Amino acid sequence: MSEYIENVLRQIKEKNINEPEYLQAVEEVLKTIKPVIAKHPEYQNLAILERMTEPERIITFRVPWVDDNGKINVNRGYRIQFNGLIGPYKGGLRFDPSVNQSIMKFLGFEQIFKNALTGLPIGGAKGGSDFDPKHKSDMEIMRFCQSFMTELQRHIGPDVDVPAGDIGVGAREIGYLYGQYRRIKDRYDGGVLTGKGLEYGGSLARTEATGYGLIYFMREMLKANGGQSLEGKTVTISGSGNVAIYACEKAQMLGAKVVAMSDSNGCIYDENGIDLAVIKQIKEVERGRIKEYLKYHQNAKYIEKTSADSPIWEIKTDIALPCATQNEVTLISAKKLVENGVIAIGEGANMPCEIAATEYFLEKGVLVAPAKAANAGGVATSAIEMSQNSMRYYLSFEQVDNMLEAIMVNIFKSSQEACETYNLGNNYVAGANIAAFTKLAKAMIAQGII
Fold first, then answer.
1. Is 153 within the bounds of a domain?
2. Do 223 and 157 fall within a single domain?
3. By residue range, what is the domain housing residue 363?
């Protein structure tokens, strides 16, 4: 690693010593862009890395709300407006007890690169709260969202910062958030939030976008390596939320056999292939636990999670798609996947593999579709939703899906071209980082010292 990169990493670790997720995200990027720094020594004089790794703005705020028992609760809200070089800040909101400043910064940092890869004019941001939406009533969710937006509305706008959904923030939450924003602002700013309902400015194919985009990227990656395809491949997918469900749907459309999905309690294994209609009923309608799949398919197996390592990674598979949360694939899980013959990993969640796990996959010749590239379909379609809101016009599902597919193909090509330029073989983790970093560095230089 270059002396410049080592010095920047040391400074970042000293300043952010209690933020492990953020440090992990930064280290993963900086280690892979070494050849770019070697080619452009002027980046050191311009402090490109120092500026790119420091958020433009960190906003934290109190979120008081009243539950159904009349008890006053207080949560903490965040919005990390990390980098607006190439467009308005753009990134989701996450409601989960695990949310803290480190996780928000890691997600915001990842978002800068992901958004740059889409080729669309959007900057990087992330936000959320340590609020837990599980087991809350609709009225409690509404009251929390209204309180959260009462503060957040000061910092966002269609040309300023455009939040969307993430873990714990779906169509219901976006609806409550937007309603409060419109109430306060007394105007229709449809482009201020994405992931909206179709009735008030949402986009067709937005729900499916991240999962579909992951599979489009995986298809291109397999094709570029030996002319392989998803047809006939066995697939396991962690998670059973939006990304996992629609990755499963598109994988099945392309002829793959998805045999396992999971939630935070455990996983189900159905050797006959996952019945996606049942998963949608359990998760999207009933908001239940994945174990309930056994009520519909008694021959399936449920494996309870008893440690930090999900049991889903012990199931033999050709392709593994971690679509749940960060660092869910440990080195232990990576070794089990390789031992069972996995050929490709597609990161549907943000940073789902520990650095050691990613390095192990690459060392063993396993193809890795990195999250910055592979799960960019959601934010790409969000940008398409913003465009539709600006035009006061709706595109058809097919139009949006075709645009999404073209964007994902171009993201793969950009990653592949970076690999070829810097002789990285099929290390698409490094390729994606370099492709995004190069674009951001050029924009940073063009705009001066800001």
1. yes
2. no
3. 207-374
**What per-residue string of b and e applies to 242-281 under the rule 16 or more CB within 10 Å gives b?**
bbbbbbbbbbbeeebbbbbbbbeebbbbbeeebbbebbbe
Q: Are 319 and 281 in contact (CB under 8 A)?
A: no
Mean pLDDT of 85-105: 97
Q: How many domains does the chain fold into? A: 2
Closest CA to 202 of 43, 21, 389, 436: 389
Give me the mean pLDDT over the 383-408 stretch. Answer: 96
If we measure between CA atoms, which residue out of 259, 267, 255, 261 comes closest to residue 280? 261
> What average pLDDT does the segment 295-304 reach?
96
d(C-alpha 448, C-alpha 450), whole Å? 6
Q: Could you write out the DSSP letters of every residue in 53-84? A: TS-SEEEEEEEEEE-TTS-EEEEEEEEEEEE-
Which residue type occupies 359? E
Distance from C-alpha of 344 to C-alpha of 364, rounded to nearest angstrom: 11
CATH number, residue 348: 3.40.50.720
Residue 240 pLDDT exceeds 60? yes
Predicted local distance difference test score (pLDDT) of residue 287: 86
Tell me whether residue 412 is in a domain. no
255 and 183, same domain (yes or no): no
Q: What are the tens digits of pLDDT across the range 341-382? A: 999 999 999 999 999 999 999 999 999 999 999 999 999 999
Q: Looking at the structure, do residues 164 and 254 belong to the same domain, yes or no?
A: no
Classify residue 431: in a domain, yes or no.
no
Mapping DSSP onto H, E and C, the string for 206-224 reads HHHHHHHHHHHHHHHHHHH
Where is 302: in which H helix or E strand? strand 301-304
Which residue among the candidates 126, 257, 336, 372 is catalytic per the annotation?
126
* Predicted pLDDT of residue 1: 54
Residues 69 and 155 in one domain: yes
What is the average pLDDT across 399-405? 98
Evaluate whether 243 touches 164 at the Cβ level (below 8 Å).
no
Q: Is 185 a catalytic residue?
A: no
For residue 260, what are the β-bridge partners? 236, 269
> 360 and 217: one domain?
yes
What mean pLDDT value characterizes the chain? Answer: 96
Last residue of a domain, one of 355, 374, 393: 374
Using pLDDT thresholds of 50, 70 and 90, give the confidence band for residue 313. very high
